[in-house]
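Note to self: keep these together.
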Amino acid sequence: MDYNETLNLPKTDFPMRAGLPTREPEFLARWEANDQYRKLMKNNEGKPLFVLHDGPPYANGDIHIGHALNKTLKDFIVRYKNMTGYQSPFVPGWDTHGLPTELAARKKAGISAETNISDLELRKICRDTALGFVDVQRESFKRLGIIAEWDNPYITLKKEFEEEQIKVFASMASKGYIYKGLKPVYWCPDCNTALAEAEIEYAEDPCHSMYV
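Structure:
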């Protein structure tokens, strides 16, 4: 005897089991097939604009919990604004320049800092590595359910993006903001390159430096 029939249970078409590993990809595929993001932007056309500028992650590996937290928090804000009287586009982006990208590319290609390689060859390796990780991270962010303009992100190695950077630099130089001076900088003996202050990790190590 099926005792479910003897209980006063609500009648619903929802399955008894969530089955998220199977059903989540179906949801995401349906959103993509329906062009959900563009329909949302079209629906909110003419409303006050709210833009959240997406600070880009480095395209140098798989996403981690920090990426997941960062993107889902942004998604909460953008969705809330789109549901409360605004048009809030969300254009994701990736930082494909700098030391993190180069180190990931060198590691993947098995090239050490001492390896004799031309700048053009190294740049091609870095470009291919970065764009590969852009695709990997994009699919991971989609699996988190983030609704964004995934087919048209900003990527810092695109020529139009680099062109704008050169224009900004030229404007700063023409106004006298760019100059050459003396300043001590952090140096990485392993990477043989200067480091930004944000890249420095401090530890409680004994220090035997002598200051004169």
